[in-house]
């Protein structure tokens, strides 16, 4: 399986995030991608290539112009105000306020965020732009006839919607790649999100569309981040009614429960008869993940890959979360090796 990777991810290395009332080192750190790349090499998964540059056009098929404008200009504006530390938002247009985009940069950040987990640094735009190009380059490989490809994206993307960032995510890599398949002639694409956290951005982007079936297996929002989306009764709306599947699970779920949910999701994907399957590949379902509660063990990721392979569809794997840094490579590449059989 071909892996697409770029060192540009290192340009995004934020100073910290709030954990337990203290500013602590970010869970989403450059070493994550390093460990995945090292495991791809150690297991000789296949060739590793740099991304091509497809420009902003395929990104703008998913994200709004004002959002992309903010992301590109935010650091320069923040630095021009004399700041050197990371840029973070603090005020959001929640209920009882008016969601009108302000002129002020700090106000715009809150307008385009749903939490304080997507800091902007000097290198963030270049890192997230290249992460999207990594997904698009792997997408081309599958569109050209490969059975599979691995987009080693960092930063991740599934919490980002059309114009709102959060949860370490800025550009929704898997959504951008899914739209690229459609724009190149695919009729139906399926997205299977196996990250521990609900992919609220991906769900939101495709919620009213029938050409993208989105399935999510995740910690229930009744107890877990992102807290405000991901319940089972969210089944799509309008033309998209019936094309969104949420399988929220209880805290502490292990492979018996998780694997059954995967089987349910895969049966729905098979019934949808997608031309291509995209996997939002988060491995924060691992038992030793520092911010998650599920209990999957490393061999379970081989089973995950095997079940996805049984769909018999061209498949694009897009890296999302996973914060047990030492084991992220083993677990992510186990999925890919399980898929290859
Ligand atoms: C892509 C992805 O996996 N994003 C996850 C974002 C989760 N960020 C908020 C996490 C809140 C962490 N609570 C810390 C509990 C530490 N025991
Ligand atoms: Zn996650």
The poorly predicted ranges are none
Report the mean per-residue pLDDT as an integer.
98
Which ligands occur here? Answer: N-[3-({4-[(3-aminopropyl)amino]butyl}amino)propyl]acetamide, zinc ion
Which geometry do the CA atoms define? globular
Strand content: 5-15%
The topology string of helices and strands comes to EEEHEHHHHEHEHEEHEHEH
- What is the number of helices? 10
Give a quick account of the main beta sheet: strands, pairing sense, barrel closure.
Answer: 8 strands, parallel
By DSSP, the count of extended strands is 10
Oligomer: single chain
Spatial extent as radius of gyration: 18 Å
Q: Strand order of the main beta sheet, please? A: 4-1-5-10-9-6-7-8
Estimated helix fraction: 25-40%
What is the CA-CA span between the terminal residues? 12 Å
Class derived from helix and strand content: alpha/beta
Describe this structure in words.
This protein is an alpha/beta fold and 341 residues long. Helix content is 36%, strand content 13%. It contains ten helices and ten strands. β9 (276-281), α9 and β10 form a beta-alpha-beta unit. α3 (65-80) packs antiparallel against α4 and α5 runs parallel beside α6. The radius of gyration is 18 Å and the shape is globular. The model has no long low-confidence stretch (mean pLDDT 98). The structure holds N-[3-({4-[(3-aminopropyl)amino]butyl}amino)propyl]acetamide and zinc ion (ZN).
Q: What's the structural blueprint in terms of helices and strands?
A:
Layout: E1 2-4, E2 17-19, E3 22-24, H1 30-42, E4 48-49, H2 57-60, H3 65-80, H4 105-111, H5 124-143, E5 148-151, H6 173-183, E6 189-193, H7 200-206, E7 212-219, E8 244-249, H8 255-272, E9 276-281, H9 298-309, E10 315-319, H10 325-340
Parallel strand pairs: 1-4, 1-5, 5-10, 6-7, 6-9, 7-8, 9-10
Antiparallel strand pairs: 2-3
Helix pairs in contact: 1-10, 3-4, 5-6, 8-9, 9-10
Bound molecules: N-[3-({4-[(3-aminopropyl)amino]butyl}amino)propyl]acetamide and zinc ion.
Zinc ion binds at residues 195-197, 282, 284, 321.
């Amino acid at each position: 399986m071909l892996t697409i990777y770029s060192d540009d991810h290192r340009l995004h290395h934020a100073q910290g995030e709030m954990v337990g009332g203290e500013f602590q080192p970010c869970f989403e750190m450059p070493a994550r991608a390093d460990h995945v790349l090292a495991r791809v090499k150690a297991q000789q998964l296949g060739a590793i290539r740099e991304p091509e540059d497809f420009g902003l056009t395929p990104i703008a098929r998913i994200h709004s112009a004002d959002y992309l404008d903010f992301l590109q200009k935010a650091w320069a504006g923040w630095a021009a105000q004399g700041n050197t530390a990371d840029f973070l938002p603090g005020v959001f247009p929640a209920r009882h306020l008016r969601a009108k985009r302000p002129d002020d940069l700090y106000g715009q950040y809150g307008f385009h965020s749903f939490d304080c987990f997507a800091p902007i640094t000097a290198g963030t735009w270049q890192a997230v732009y290249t992460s999207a190009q990594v997904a698009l380059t792997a997408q081309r490989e599958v569109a050209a006839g490969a059975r599979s490809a691995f987009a080693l994206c960092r930063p991740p993307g599934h919490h980002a919607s059309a114009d709102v960032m959060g949860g370490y995510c800025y550009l929704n890599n898997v959504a951008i790649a899914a739209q690229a398949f459609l724009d190149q002639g695919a009729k139906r694409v399926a997205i299977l999100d196996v990250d521990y956290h609900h992919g609220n951005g991906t769900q939101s982007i495709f919620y009213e569309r029938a050409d993208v079936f989105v399935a999510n297996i995740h910690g229930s929002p009744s107890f877990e981040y992102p807290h405000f989306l991901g319940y089972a009764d969210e089944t799509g709306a309008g033309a998209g009614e019936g094309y969104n599947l949420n399988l929220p699970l209880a805290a502490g779920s292990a492979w018996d429960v998780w694997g059954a949910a995967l089987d349910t999701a895969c049966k729905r994907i098979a019934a949808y008869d997608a031309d291509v399957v995209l996997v939002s590949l988060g491995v924060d379902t691992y038992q030793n993940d520092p911010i998650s509660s599920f209990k999957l063990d490393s061999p379970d990721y081989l089973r995950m890959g095997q079940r996805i392979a049984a769909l018999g569809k061209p498949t694009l794997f897009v890296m999302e979360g996973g914060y047990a840094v030492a084991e992220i490579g083993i677990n992510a590449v186990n999925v890919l090796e399980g898929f290859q059989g």
